[in-house]
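Here is an idea for our session: we take a single protein and study its fold together. Start from the sequence, derive the backbone structure tokens from it, and show both lines together. Once you have written the record down, we can walk along the chain together:
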Amino acid sequence: MKVLLFGCLLAAASVMVAGCRSDEPVRTAAARTVQARVVESQLQRTPATVRATGTLHARETAVLSAQVVGHVEQVLVHEGDSVRAGQTLAVLDDATLREALDQAQAEVKAAENQQAAAQSDSALAASTLVRYKQLQVEKSVSPQEMDEVTRHAEAAAQRVESLREQSEAAKAQAQSARTMLDYARLRAPFAGVVTARMADPGTLASPGVPLLQVDSAGPLQLQVTVDESVIGAVHRGMKIQVTIDGALSPDFPGTVAEIVPAADPASHSFLVKIDLAPSNMLHAGMYGTAAIATGSREAILVQRSAVVLRGSLVCAYVLDGNGIAQLRYLTLGATHGNLVEILSGLSSGERLVDDPQDRDLAGTRIEAQP
């Protein structure tokens, strides 16, 4: 019985070995075929650029502070309010300044009255001197009388001049008091928008302490720092492509308006101000990047729509010689309109699936759409 069982097992093993050694080819599952648009990577000459970052600012910004010491009596504006040039924005307590102006004006009045009296006295003394000179010709006055009349006329004229100087000084003092009183009102230096309010009624204001900030109305500027090795390629009027983070349309054309001529000694960089066209999407304080052209170079470019994100990785579906899509990881460079520069992961002339969206096409045969 045992011999019979062993024989059966041996026969079964022989059949299995024979099956494994069969010359019939192994069959594999055919790849799934999907139609899709196909684009090709290209080696092109592109502008060589240096990216400089900065923030948006108004073309003019004024931080207003008091020029006299006093408590804030009124703040007439809030953040976000539009103001016109010369508009009163805040008022300080001016009681002391008004008293000083009243006193100065009283001194002006007194000086003018004294000057008028002295002028009258001087005119009388001058006419008396004329008569005495005539009498002197007629030898009707003594030399002593003539000397006394002459000295009185000269003293009267000197008093008029002295009082004239005092009157001018009093008027200057009154004008100074009037100016100091005007300092009690903070006015907008230009038309714009209030962007900061740092004081409320009751705040003690003093010179140098900021109370309000006003940004000029109109287009904004991107202010960036540019390394000294690149500043030679930048000039006024130069057109620069600007990317603004947070804007619905991130790309904006810009024009270099100003290059601050002195470099920062610590960073060896220059401040460059770039004018931007008016846009409701732009606000002061937003972060932006300027692409400064420094020449040209060769780069591999591909349609931006062929690049996808898989998690946090940048990828593309690249077709092999048989048209099978393989997921490949890429390193991107600068963008040029609808094209993006590929720093690594692609060679020139490779075919990619355009706009794959969220589809998983790895291992799929791609049939190019016409």
